[in-house]
């Protein structure tokens, strides 16, 4: 099974379904040319292993930069699904087809991380101490999976 996004004439995603290519090709859900395959495990042009959420060894599985969502736009020139622009000041990164903020996210000192995690869910979270001195950057919060991912940058 694969995921397919139905694109309207303006290139906006109206629906995403799980189906076989033969089902799409049969016309049972309308004109097959309005359905474009999307990869559930692709974000920012990188395919992630669904079990570990780490980049897959086989990046040939990365498909159309991002998993399509209702309201996303399909750009045929970039062959990519692009999420809605969150703010007018954000700029499209054509390599990832994600929106970049005008200012980079500030780094978070490790001693402040517990406070941030407490605030997020109102529950105490713990993290393994990888290093005693460092800052946290590239924080990705995925509340639907109750995960926080980050890159630890050591300071000397």
What is the chain-wise order of helices and strands?
EEHEEEEEEEEHEE
**DSSP helical segment count:** 2
Question: Looking across the biggest beta sheet, what order are the strands in?
Answer: 2-1-3
Helix content: 10-25%
State the low-pLDDT regions, or none. 123-138, 140-156
Q: Care to count the β-strands?
A: 12
Shape: globular
Largest pleated sheet: 3 strands, antiparallel
Percent of sequence in beta strands: 25-35%
Give me the secondary-structure category: mainly beta
Number of domains: 2
Average of the residue pLDDT scores: 81
**What radius of gyration results from the CA coordinates?**
19 Å
Straight-line N-to-C gap = 49 Å
Concise overview:
The protein is mainly β. The protein has helices at 21-25, 110-121, and strands at residues 2-7, 13-19, 35-38, 42-43, 46-47, 73-75, 80-82, 91-93, 98-100, 108-109, 135-142, 147-153.
């Amino acid at each position: 099974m694969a995921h397919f996004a139905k694109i309207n004439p303006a290139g906006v995603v109206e629906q995403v379904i799980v189906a076989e290519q033969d089902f799409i090709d049969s016309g049972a859900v309308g004109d097959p040319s309005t359905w474009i395959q999307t990869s559930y495990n692709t974000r920012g042009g990188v395919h992630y292993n669904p079990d570990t959420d780490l980049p897959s060894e086989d990046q040939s599985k990365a498909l159309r930069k991002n998993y399509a969502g209702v309201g996303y736009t399909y750009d045929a020139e970039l062959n990519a699904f692009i999420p809605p622009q969150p703010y007018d000041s954000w700029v499209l990164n054509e390599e990832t087809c994600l929106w970049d903020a005008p200012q980079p996210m500030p780094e978070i000192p490790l001693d402040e991380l517990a406070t941030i995690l407490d605030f997020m869910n109102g529950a105490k979270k713990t993290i393994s101490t990888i290093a005693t001195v460092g800052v946290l950057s590239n924080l990705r919060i995925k509340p639907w999976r109750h995960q926080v991912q980050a890159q630890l940058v050591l300071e000397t």
